[in-house]
Amino acid sequence: MDINTGQIFAISNEQEFNDAAISVFKHQAANCDVYRQYISHLRINPKDIINYSEIPFLPISFFKSHSVISSIKPIEIAFSSSGTTGQITSKHLVQDLAIYEQSYNKAFELFYGKADDYCILALLPSYLEREGSSLIYMVDDLLKQSTNPRSGYFLHNHAELHQTLEELKSAEQKTLLIGVTYALLDFTEQYQIDFPELIVMETGGMKGKRKEMVRAELHQLLCASFGVKQINSEYGMTELLSQGYSKSNGIFQCPPWMKILLRDTSDPLSILSAAHTTGGINVIDLANINSCSFIATQDLGKIHGENRFEIMGRFDNADIRGCNLLVQ
Fold first, then answer.
1. Fewer CB atoms < 10 Å away: N or C end of the chain?
2. Mean pLDDT of the chain, nearest integer
């Protein structure tokens, strides 16, 4: 393979992205068994692909039924999705954790700056109560990088979280509160705070704890409860080693090594070119260099210009997952 991770994380323009994507595609088409078979069934010759928009996307469900790996390296960790009892969950077999660490650290710094500038508070009870969460792996590392002694996890100790937020507000400390949606709502039913400088980041999903809400209504409620103007969001999933971030209005941005394309909902092999059209979300995540970088998700969305996208919901027949996203 003629590309390394240093090149992936140094991508700065469309040509560099395309060159890297084609190189990664050829590597995975040759070395990822399930992807190679999938391409073969589509009767696609990898040598004919010259642009990333022509690359076939592997349905995300294959992460439930197959080992999606493109390397002979040993598995360092198996990230798994959450699900209800009896459900088959997705597994992402990660062969190089250093790549995941590079990806989330570079993306976080790109969108928010250095983690050690923040006090980071994590309200992620459902993630902490199970094993194999890639989000918890990332947050664990960000917490270690934070130099503030108040940084840490909060399960159901909302009174302590409220007191901590009040203290951080008084100290004028740069603060990030990252929480699963239902847990943030649970907190707001007991406490309110006027902390305009606070960054509130919701990770999406009610995990069966609450009824799904329209995003605008949810964000309006959270804004009022925390005294902030905007709610931030994270777009990530077990099958990806990169994340998109939204700082307002549910419009996500990708880091330079990640790209969103839309597929036709009635013709899954056709890519849509029109902006603001709703389609199925296809993700190119070049950090997935040792698994599969080209994934057809079960999310529906719209494209809003270069590397900006919005999630509208999920396909009706998609499994309910722990990270299921807010409906529009």
1. N
2. 91
Residue 11 · residue 20 · CB < 8 Å: yes
pTM: 0.91
Query: Tens digit of pLDDT for each residue in 133-162?
Result: 999 999 999 999 999 999 999 988 999 999
Instruction: Summarize the confidence of residues 15-32 as an average pLDDT.
Output: 96
Helix-helix angle 134-145:97-112, to 10 degrees:
60
**Cβ(91)–Cβ(79) below 8 Å:** yes
* Residue-level length of the chain: 328
Q: What is the DSSP string of 10-66?
A: T--SHHHHHHHHHHHHHHHHHH-HHHHHHHHHTT--GGG--SGGGSPPEETTHHHHS
Confidence category of residue 322, pLDDT binned at 50, 70, 90:
very low
- Tell me, rounded to whole angstroms, the distance of Cα 93 from its chain centroid: 16
CA–CA distance, 197 with 148 (Å, rounded to integer)? 17
Residues 6+ apart with CB under 8 A from 102: 5, 9, 287
Tokens of 41: 């069934």
Cα distance between residue 92 and residue 240, in whole Å: 8
